[in-house]
Design a protein that fits this description.
The protein is an alpha/beta fold and 229 residues long. Its main location: membrane.
Length: 229
């Protein structure tokens, strides 16, 4: 049976461990709060930007002003899938849900006779797909969390995707990521990037309806829409 001294030593050790884990919990909560604030602050901007691009691309403009990134090649035989995961684990199904959804999507495309390639973002997606479909990985981006995924990193990834597209290596690009709902709930989301996935909002298929839509638009473009596209 442990002596009284042994029990006191054990209690002291447990108390010290509790203080350390409590401090770690507060640090983690602070980091989570900052990340959550950043995600929520960026959401209105991204939503409005997506709405504006959809408005531009669906405005019926034709000719040299319409770029292939918005309108696509007219085919859907070759897909570039971009799964976005974290570099670290121990976060429940945050990474595994994305990897599972990506695998399922790639298999479904192959069953339809289409070709799928991967551009992975995050160590967890890179390592996972290196094990099961290494031949499909075109490029991988990792260690983004340590230095912060800012504008420069986003432009690097964007330029790579555009380069692959204009080189004719894919027809459709789909992003798979976790959409933030709350600290414990993230929704796996697929978003088509190229060509831009535009919901047809026209209620009447005639010139009067088109003119009415243009008059009611909340956007004013300088220069005109064709020049921007």
């Amino acid at each position: 049976m442990p002596s009284l001294k042994d029990l006191k030593t054990k209690i002291s050790s447990v108390s010290s461990t509790r203080k350390i884990t409590s401090a770690m919990k507060m640090v983690a909560a602070s980091k989570l709060r900052r990340s959550q604030e950043k995600a929520e602050a960026a959401r209105p901007y991204s939503s409005r930007l997506e709405e504006m691009l959809s408005s531009l691309a669906s405005s019926g403009i034709t000719g040299e002003g319409v770029i292939k990134l918005l309108t696509g090649t007219g085919k859907d035989e070759r897909y570039l899938i971009v799964p976005v995961t974290a570099d670290r684990g121990l976060c429940g199904g945050f990474n595994s849900n994305i990897n599972r959804e990506t695998t399922k999507y790639v298999r479904s495309l192959e069953n339809e006779g289409k070709n799928a390639s991967l551009l992975t973002i995050g160590k967890k997606s890179r390592d996972f797909f290196n094990r099961i479909m290494k031949d499909k990985i075109i490029e991988s981006y990792v260690d983004l969390g340590s230095k912060g995924a800012g504008y420069d990193t986003a432009m690097q990834i964007s330029n790579k995707i555009q380069s692959l597209y204009f080189d004719g290596q894919f027809d459709v690009c789909v992003l798979i990521f976790n959409k933030f709902k709350s600290a414990i709930v993230q929704e796996v989301t697929q978003q088509q990037l190229i060509p831009l996935d535009i919901a047809d909002k026209k209620t009447e298929d005639n010139e009067d309806a088109t003119e009415e839509k243009k008059e009611n638009s909340i956007y004013t473009y300088e220069p005109d829409e064709a020049s921007i596209l």
